Task: inverse folding
């Protein structure tokens, strides 16, 4: 990329940021915009001195195995495009094929020997610098402004691929391990997943594939602050998992959890236009055992339109039924088993450089006594809307809007709207640096102190996969 | 010792293997809709829902099957590919941009070939009459042969696009003038990176690339430059191969 187009990109990005800020946030300090733009300018400036060799992209496991670039499957890593989604659904086999027994295998007599680099990959995400800005609070107990330096400790070693045709696996060093059995009965009739996985992998808005990564920060005060999509969040204050651990109301959970133990099945038996999924999980925070011996269930359906004109659209809905999957200890009320359910819709529209998606969820808790309901709000909702724009081959701009109308303990229900803006610059298709700013748009009066005090966060860091 | 390359034009009837019965076409369509549509689009125009992302604002986009300019051919520039050419492309994939489809059975691959040929009327009306065959075995890559290849590289002005160091940064490219037939900027291949060659990396593959050119891309056909008995394509090929062995010991 030459200096001219860099300057153009920069100006464009500054303009977009200004426009968004001017229209949405008239009274936030002008300094903020300047800060973001300066950070982006520095980042892009530094990068322009690094010589970029476009045809030498280093490629992670699947890309290595099939000898293609990352963006064959991703819009931009980590989000999948339509082709990548079908590859995932097919158990890490090319759509329309059952090639798991062939590609990436060396044959030695009747033994096939996989090439290790076709299976192993390495992922690292690091927020190099995060600056959190909060309102003045009680000096001793309240959250405080923080500038946090990150270490690239957030790395994962992962192995994924196929053992033979229609048998796949995925395992990483953080929280997932799954075996897939694919194309049972007939091509694309049923694919089975067994293990510890993300239920929403095939949903229109997948939990794990966030351009604005999930961030947790300790800002002093009682609880830590988590920046994560509101639609996926646990939403309730004062909710505990079955082991008694308090659930952060921002944590992705239930259908939208990052991983839980269970079994599920999905397929497109009638053609590409319709996907079904049904699954059963142990439930929130339950590993291989289940402390209550009851299971959670979910069903998901998805409609797809993916044919031509660089266009695709899909819409999905799910229903998640929890059984005694949480306990409640609201102020004054005794600990109490409850059924925590969720219903959600999500959609994606992609056209050329635009990828616009979002989801809305409603959570309900049932099985509470009247006395508990008096102090515990049993319904909550979350909305996440996101737009990603591929501005140049290397620059991705994203905006994410979150609105959480939390429930739970009536004295501190989480009520928050956050707008996140991010510029992500890809040095290679698998290495990116980003600058991001998250702004609290509501004063969040009722909310827990840390959410109430939170004003904005400026985050900058690195994401890479090998 | 008259080692020269024979460029022979042979009238060829298309692969006897290609079954164009309605049943075969229907099977081909099913495979196409499962495996190819996301990139090549329902009408074969190269505008599938995932077609934008791999290269975005640069070439290549997935092939528009309604156009007759194919890159990977054994035929003279301007002509359609043979069925075997298509079979090779689909089986091996295209490094960087299209995965190999060796997971489809041979019959499935022939069926999908029969189907994609229905997108362009040229396949119905034009017969592929001409084949460039490489009759002579490759020459050994002696230092003399490689040096002669380097001379040809400069004489034929390959460096204008591919650069003096052959990494793909020649002046025509750095001026930003290189576009493919869709009007998108295209990067000349880094000739020191053999595994990235789309049309294959064997001596025969490279000779084919240079002789036929890649239609639709600025890479021209050099068939006429190598038609006389005393210029051997193998010197050129040996030179290109030496570029990668030099950098990848």
Result:
């Amino acid at each position: 990329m030459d200096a001219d187009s860099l300057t153009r990109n920069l100006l464009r990005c500054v303009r977009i940021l200004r426009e968004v800020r001017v229209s949405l946030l008239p009274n936030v300090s002008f300094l903020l915009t300047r800060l973001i733009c300066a950070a982006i300018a520095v980042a892009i400036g530094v990068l322009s001195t690094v010589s970029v060799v476009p045809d030498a992209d280093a490629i992670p496991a699947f890309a290595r195995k099939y000898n293609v670039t990352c963006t064959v499957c991703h819009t931009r890593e980590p989000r999948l495009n339509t082709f990548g989604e079908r590859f995932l659904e097919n158990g890490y086999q090319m759509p329309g094929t059952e090639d798991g027994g062939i590609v990436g295998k060396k044959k030695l007599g009747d033994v096939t020997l996989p090439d290790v680099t076709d299976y192993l990959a390495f992922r690292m995400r690091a927020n190099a610098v995060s600056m959190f800005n909060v309102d003045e609070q009680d000096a001793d107990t309240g959250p405080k402004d923080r500038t946090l330096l990150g270490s690239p400790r957030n790395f994962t070693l992962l192995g994924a691929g196929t053992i033979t045709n229609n048998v796949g696996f995925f395992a990483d060093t953080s929280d997932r391990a799954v075996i897939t059995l694919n194309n049972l009965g007939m091509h694309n009739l049923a694919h089975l997943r067994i293990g510890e996985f993300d239920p929403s992998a095939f949903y229109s808005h997948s939990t794990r594939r966030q351009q604005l990564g999930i961030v947790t920060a300790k800002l002093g005060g009682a609880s830590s602050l988590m920046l994560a999509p509101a639609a996926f969040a646990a939403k309730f204050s004062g909710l505990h998992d079955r082991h008694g651990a308090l659930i952060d109301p921002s944590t992705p959970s239930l259908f939208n959890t990052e991983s839980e133990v269970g079994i599920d099945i999905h397929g497109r038996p009638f053609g590409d236009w319709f996907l079904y999924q049904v699954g059963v999980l142990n439930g929130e925070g339950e590993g291989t055992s289940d402390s209550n011996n009851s299971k959670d269930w979910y069903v998901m359906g998805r409609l797809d339109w993916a044919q031509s004109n660089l266009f695709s659209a899909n819409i999905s809905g799910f229903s998640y039924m929890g059984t005694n999957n949480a306990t409640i200890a609201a102020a004054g009320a005794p600990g109490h088993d409850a059924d925590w359910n969720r219903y959600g819709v999500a959609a994606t529209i992609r056209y050329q450089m635009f990828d616009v998606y979002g989801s809305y969820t409603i959570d309900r808790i049932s099985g509470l006594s009247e006395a508990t309901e008096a102090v515990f709000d049993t319904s909550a909702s979350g909305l996440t809307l996101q737009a990603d724009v591929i501005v140049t081959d290397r620059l991705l701009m994203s905006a994410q809007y979150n609105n959480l109308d939390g429930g739970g303990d009536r004295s501190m229900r989480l009520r928050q709207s956050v707008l996140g803006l991010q510029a992500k610059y890809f040095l290679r298709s698998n290495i990116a640096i980003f600058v991001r700013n998250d702004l609290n748009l509501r004063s969040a009066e009722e909310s827990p102190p840390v959410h109430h005090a939170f004003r904005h966060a400026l985050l900058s860091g690195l994401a890479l996969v090998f | 010792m008259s080692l020269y390359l024979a460029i022979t034009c042979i009238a060829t009837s298309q692969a006897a293997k290609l079954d164009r019965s309605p049943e075969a076409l229907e099977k081909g369509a099913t495979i196409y809709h499962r495996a190819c549509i996301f990139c090549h689009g329902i009408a074969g125009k190269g505008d599938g829902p995932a077609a934008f992302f791999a290269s975005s604002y640069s070439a290549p986009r997935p092939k528009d099957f309604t156009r007759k300019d194919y890159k990977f051919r054994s035929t003279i520039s301007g002509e359609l590919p043979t069925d075997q050419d298509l079979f090779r492309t689909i089986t091996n994939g295209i490094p960087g941009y299209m995965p190999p489809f060796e997971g489809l059975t041979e019959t499935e691959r022939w069926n999908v070939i029969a189907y994609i040929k229905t997108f362009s009327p040229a396949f119905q009306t034009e017969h592929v009459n001409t084949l460039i065959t490489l009759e002579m075995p490759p020459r050994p890559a002696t230092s003399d042969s490689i040096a002669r290849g380097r001379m040809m590289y400069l004489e034929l002005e390959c460096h204008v696009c591919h650069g003096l160091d052959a990494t793909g940064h020649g002046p025509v490219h750095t001026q930003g003038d290189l576009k493919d037939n869709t009007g998108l900027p295209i990067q000349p291949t880094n000739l020191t990176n053999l595994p990235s060659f789309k049309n294959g990396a064997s001596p025969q593959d490279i000779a084919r690339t240079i002789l036929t050119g890649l239609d639709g891309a600025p890479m021209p056909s050099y068939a006429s430059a190598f038609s006389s008995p005393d210029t051997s394509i193998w010197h050129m090929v040996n030179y290109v191969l030496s570029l990668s062995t030099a950098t990848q010991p």
Observations:
- Confidence is low (pLDDT under 50) at residues 16-30, 43-59 of chain A.
